[in-house]
Description:
two-stranded antiparallel sheet; Dehydroquinate synthase-like, alpha domain; 7-stranded mixed sheet; 2 domains; Rossmann fold
Amino acid sequence: METIPVKYPGGEYPVCWGETILPDAGRLLRAAGFGGACAVVTNPVVGGHYAQPVLKSLTDHGFQPALCEIPDGEAHKTLQTVAGLYDQFFAAGLDRKSLVLSLGGGVVGDQAGFAAATYLRGVPFVQIPTSLLAMVDAGVGGKTGVDLPQGKNLVGAFKQPRMVIVDAATLATLPGPEFRSGLAEALKHGIIADPALFEAMQQGALPLPKMIAAAIQVKVDIVQADPFERGRRAVLNLGHTFGHAFEKLSGFQLRHGEGVAIGMACAARLAANLGHCAPAVADQIISAIDFLGLPTALPDHEPVAVWQAMGADKKKEAGQLRFILPTAIGQVDIFTDVPQAAVIEVLTK
């Protein structure tokens, strides 16, 4: 097991990563000074694979864990589901020192983290991501939230975890499409700040554990510099302005990583069209997305409908959409003066 430290204003937490480390969860948390009643939030799919090892580890180290299940899928990432978690926390006897552990992908982590941030005005939170997407992105940085009918993650809070436990062995049960969705976020980190990671992924030349660690390190470096997304952290949204709109218009049937992949392809084309990067850079990005088995073709939506869906994006600044566009491999910038016509052009088949 190895550890990557993450510092934020007022504290620090470790990202513990390795192979087959779920049985160490109880020991790690006990060593960090936690104990007593706690809640393990998961869904039936992930829980069926990994809840019992986690519950046993916690019990063996003196915790009194309660299994709290929520429905599987983005469609259930709602305030109603979080309200159900409050009921389960109360029934489990959680107090202000009790841990809430998220066991699952980004959807589980978003909801469990938001519930932890708001139950009793805030209780300690631990991330145990089991999807590649959550390991390299959603599990680090403290952003939590739920969706509204108007768009993704429009209600949420910053809630820094006390620990993140990344067990690469859990990826063995991850369906292929979900694994590829995680690759989109890892590739995104390479485009943003790590050309070596991008190149290795483009060639399929990086062992999985090293890819995970490299992608996590990019996320850690960025969130440490801007923990509350007041500036540079926005670059982590590469592909998301387009991608969230595609997800919304699909009724959230499109996987997040798939939306991000298409969004990154759109962002690359837009950057090239506006002269912010060389056409060869855009081609290289799109080729890498294709190589990883991710989509780059536009979904069947009217361009104006996509533009309107973008209008609900929470990442707007002073009423203007923010576009994260690549300027080179390993470099991106934030643009708020992108003409609607240029976006529509990219969205036109």
